[in-house]
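Journal club side-thread
Mid-discussion, someone asked how the predicted structure for our own chain would compare to the paper's figures. Pasting it here so we can look after the session.
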Amino acid sequence: MASPADATTPLPDDQRHRLRDEIERLREEAAHQKRLAHRRAEFWARTEIALGFPAALLAGVAGATGLATADARIPAALLALASAGFAAGAGFLRSATRCRANKRARRAWADVEGRAAVKLARNGATPEDLAELLDYRQTALVAYDGEDSQPGPAPLTVG
């Protein structure tokens, strides 16, 4: 049997509204950051293709040109130099790594957005709900840095 001391006291209306407003703000921030991470991931994927494909193509053409005739060694060397430039640019920009980081961040922000939407759909957000969402927000912020999935709360699952 539950005693009155066991029951949680409801929050005053102004606190409930502030909590709800803050959770809504976090949901909107997560939606915005998710869109940004998506656009960045697309940009870095395109950059990887834009630098990697010409590097591979020029390297192949340079090799074929160099083997074709002795007179074609100068053009082959120039093609190889251009290929090396594209490859160096791709290596310097680390576009594949940046693309993966933004995909991780996109998933993390989508998780924050989904959890915030669930908490908003429920009646009566609690300070613990806000604290949990802030933990997930922190996980999303560090998702850009890590190579593998970050330690922290488990991803949102349905069912």
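Post-session note: Residues 11 and 126 are 8 Å apart (CA to CA).
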